[in-house]
């Protein structure tokens, strides 16, 4: 007569917690670091992290139009502001997470260094070929790059030679494959690609400070969403971000 009692106990025993899915929309430049962080966090918690990468402008517009996402990490403050102004960032759940640097890269290894400063001869370096950049009027990496070239007084000389891409990783690919001899990307992107060389750093005062804000969105319904958002500011995630070349801001 023990079987009914055992069955009753089995029914009363707590079931394993169901795994939740955390959907993250993130700037393309975060891919390598965020893939690593998400894999580590998923292994520790059992929850799944689904990562969608693109230009911050495209992601912000998708969120505003109703795309299902729990977290947004932008490569500039302006696109996070656009989402926030629509009331789609949870109150008190936004933080400036990371910083970055803007660099000039060349195809392959062993390219000669370039001294970047006011009036530097970028047009002569290009010699009629293309300069790879993200979209200069909407994607943060492209906006930062255009601002730097304008500040240094060389934008007009190279504007016609700019090959614009939907995001900074696409611009990186143009240089790594040799379709463009030079490009402007984040330092972290250059570090993620073996077939490019950083030939120069843009002066920090030639472009706006690069800031990656992270925000928990109002559609985030599970505790796992908030847990992952908070984990991004934790010691383990910070170490991974730093290993990939980002500056940790908090």
UniProtKB/TrEMBL annotation:
Coiled-coil ranges per UniProt: none
UniProt-listed Gene3D superfamilies: Periplasmic binding protein-like II
InterPro entries: ModA (IPR005950), ModA/WtpA (IPR050682)
Record GO cellular component, one term: plasma membrane
Keyword Metal-binding in record: yes
Stated family: Belongs to the bacterial solute-binding protein ModA family.
Protein name stated in the entry: Molybdate-binding protein ModA
Organism: Paracoccus siganidrum
